[in-house]
Known about the structure:
The structure holds two protein chains of two kinds.
Chain A: H1 18-23, E1 39-48, E2 54-62, E3 66-67, E4 81-86, E5 97-104, E6 109-114, E7 118-120, E8 128-136, E9 141-144, E10 149-151, E11 156-165, E12 170-178, E13 192-200, E14 206-214, E15 232-239, H2 245-257, E16 262-268, E17 274-281, H3 284-303
Parallel strand pairs in A: 1-5, 4-6, 5-8, 6-9, 7-10, 8-11, 9-12, 10-12, 11-13
Antiparallel strand pairs in A: 1-2, 3-4, 12-15, 13-14, 15-17, 16-17
Helix pairs in contact in A: 2-3
Chain B: H1 16-26, H2 41-48, H3 53-84, H4 88-100, H5 105-125, H6 129-139, H7 147-157, H8 162-183, H9 189-198, H10 200-210, H11 223-233
Helix pairs in contact in B: 2-11, 3-4, 3-7, 3-8, 3-9, 3-10, 5-6, 5-7, 7-8, 8-9, 8-10
Amino acid sequence: MSSTGSKPTYYPDTSLPTQFCEFDREQPNQLRVGAAGKEGVLNVTFKRDGNDNTFISKQYTQLPFHITRVLRLDDNLPGMAFLYIQMPTGGLLQGDRLQACINLEQGTQVHITTQSVSKVYRMDKNYASQITDIHVGKGAFLEYYPDALLLQKGSRYSQKTRLVVHDDATVIYGEIVLPGRVASGELFDYEIYHSDLLAEYCNGKPRFRESLLLEPEQIDVTRQGMLGHWKVFGNFYVINKTVNLDQLSDEVHDILQDQEGILGGCSLLPSHDGIVVRILGQHHRKVKTTMDQVWGWVRQKLISTPLPQIRK
Amino acid sequence: MHLPINKQANQAEFDSASFLNALQISDSFFPTGMVTLSHALETFVDEEGVNSVSNFKNLLEDYLRYQIGVTDSIALANSHKAAIVRNLPEIVKIDWMLGAVKFAKESRDSSIKSGRRMLEICDRLTSDPIILGLKREVEEGSSLGNYAVVLGVLSSTLGIPCQQAILIELYSFAVSFLGAAMRLGRLNYLEVQDTLKNVTETMLEVAAENIDRSISEMRSFTPSIDIMGMKHERAERRLFIS
């Protein structure tokens, strides 16, 4: 296994919302931006060997990022690489700057998740950010399904994710965002949350872009057109052009209508080569189990295998 | 080929002829098909029992501020500016980026349908090469033809300033939305006029906030509106296309 110190390629549009430029004027009282342990780097390339096993051919990590070795957790897909991204710091702190570059070469099968909920802690100086760049090569299969993002009271967080996906590749991407530590009385008490997910074709044309900026104190996110009376939101995307997508979209939509305690819907992606799912709920657990159910259905349709047991 | 900058779409020169152009393209008489749309309002009424005048007003404001304004209006403003400097490749790029942020199929399809209707008629209104260029790109499948983008380019060639063009878009949307509320039997013709009047401040603010934003600043968070659109896609009984 070789290692490389090269930095990931940056998202092409490096401009953050102006609020973050303001935060950047102040350094944390603790470790400065860019100090050891504050500038996380994760650089991983997956390859397929002659036995159809996906393995890590290159890796470089820098704290607070840490990764496990590849695990084999799916008996139906014995060659699939399961990778847990870990953070020994337990969450994101002010001044943290994380960059991840994940590269799936031809024919690889990869599942990426985290060990637990990603916590973003309270901040009074600066902010935390993560830039993720994912390339999915020809015939590759990626499941990117981290645990929920927990935005604690007073947190400021920006994440930009770019997915470059080959026409003959499959991506399943799920994310859930929590309104705070609800049991401790937190509810939309974070200061700012910015997320910009851009999925592209290899030639740079956009497939879809999910970009949002939430400042609950400035704009009430429980307005009827936004979350309404719901608290947790989740998005789930599938990119794949081999199955009948109109049918898959209808089936997934029906699964969501049968659920109590959530509001959900499914439609075709703007690029018409995949589906998008939106789920709103009151509780993390319900949104998560619903999303798992959708994931299971999609997995069965796409690769005829049920959900693997993912240990957490 | 370097073409001269179109000086017509200048704020100071918004003359009476351009005003008439603005009236023509914003009138529901103009065949964009917007009267057939409810923008998922039909499902909101069915599922969430939207009923009162204030509820319709608040929901309309959500659409204007948090969906149309921060996506379509930004695309419109940038297309308008790109049309003035004759940058067709930029217009095509904006058109794709706008399509990429529309997550409910019906809202995406109706935006494209309205835009293409407008393109069909555009050569009766102007012979400006930039709008004809966009029409050709759409016919060849190289551009989508979203309503906001076509409206931005067309209004620029008709001498309608950018801010007024955004207001045309917001106003047309509000009329389409309230028209649906009326035909769903939830608002009467006076309540509709009141509501239209009561959102003028919002429309002016939305136009001012978004006119100088770049395409990368298109950010929207309206999951409930999106989900209602997805539900409307499968509704068994429905009066409207979206």
